[in-house]
Write a structure and sequence with these properties.
The protein is of the alpha/beta class. It has twelve helices and twelve strands.
């Protein structure tokens, strides 16, 4: 089997890292840009690796590079090895007396900006040796593939290998600016929303929570066909549009309270409440950095009354 051949031959770690970069980039040029090497240097390293293994790792096409079957096998193996090495590196860093090293947290943009950002100064002051990176992304990053160390998500993850800690629950309401209500009137009930401009989330975009357009559904409207609609693929953008009188939006209560000029509407109109979870891979359960960040959030929520 080809896998056995891979393990019995002397392998150069640098060549394997270059191979992985090329496999991910799909071209020598893009991999060279990422690694700071020339295209010819990358090509030489790949050719040398192929010679040492006695197999072709890539099909060369005018449009770029495609992994051969042997290349797929090697790519999966090297990815697993480098992932494990990265994990070992994290564990070695965490074995030190004082927590230090990089910590990458991913969170939905609106939540990172409006809820998490004010909680960060105390954490960075208490743990100056932790290099914190906050990645605002409404898409799902794969924690198991080490795209992030931990995540704050607005739904319960389904993967069994993830540890999840509930943080808080948020409720949603409809709201609009006074300027919009003066111009267009105040809706009397949900059916009345058909006569109003509704601000929602594009159906085709990845949203940070499950039902961003529940107000359209509750009014019997389709966000893609309702003639009076404004769709924005950002919760912060939606809140700004509502604040500026462009229509009626469905937003988390805490965001309505902290945005001057937004007036809650139709208190009986409620979406399903959402719970925010702190989520991390099972192998990080002993990570000092992840644990300190999790505990900081929980303590901050308790200090603020949940």
């Amino acid at each position: 089997m080809q896998v056995c051949t891979v393990y019995h031959m002397h392998m150069d770690w640098d060549k394997l890292r270059i191979f992985q970069a090329v496999a991910a980039a799909g071209s020598f040029t893009h991999a060279g840009d990422k690694l700071g090497l020339s295209q010819s240097a990358i090509s030489r390293q790949i050719s040398a690796l192929e010679d040492s293994l006695g197999v072709s790792l890539f099909h060369r096409h005018a449009r770029g590079l495609i992994l051969t079957e042997q290349g797929e096998i090697l790519n999966k193996t090297t990815h697993d090895v480098f992932t494990k090495l990265s994990l070992v590196e994290s564990q070695l860093l965490d074995s030190k007396q004082k927590a230090s090293g990089p910590l990458l947290i991913t969170i939905a943009e609106f939540l990172g900006t409006t809820w998490l950002a004010p909680l960060l100064p105390r954490f960075t002051a208490a743990h100056p040796d932790i290099q914190l990176t906050i990645l605002h992304d409404d898409k799902l990053l794969n924690l198991g593939m080490r795209e992030a160390d931990a995540a704050i998500r607005l739904y319960r993850p389904e993967q069994p290998d993830l540890v999840q800690k509930p943080l808080f629950t948020m409720q949603f309401h409809l709201c609009a600016a006074e300027s919009y209500l003066v111009r267009s009137g105040r809706p009397e009930d949900m059916k009345d929303l058909k006569n109003h401009t509704l601000i929602g989330y594009p159906v085709s975009s990845a949203s940070p929570y499950a039902t961003p357009n529940w107000h359209f559904a509750a009014a019997g409207l389709d966000p893609e066909t309702h003639p009076r609609r404004l769709l924005i693929n950002s919760v912060l953008g939606i809140s700004e549009a509502a604040k500026n009188g462009l229509g009626i939006a469905a937003l988390p209560d805490y965001l309505i309270k902290r945005t001057p000029g937004l007036i809650p509407l139709l208190p009986e109109a409620l979406a399903q409440p959402l719970t925010a979870y702190f989520v991390y891979p099972h192998e990080h359960r002993h990570s000092k950095r992840v644990g300190l960040f999790r505990d900081h959030l929980i303590n901050a929520l308790q200090d603020n009354g949940g």
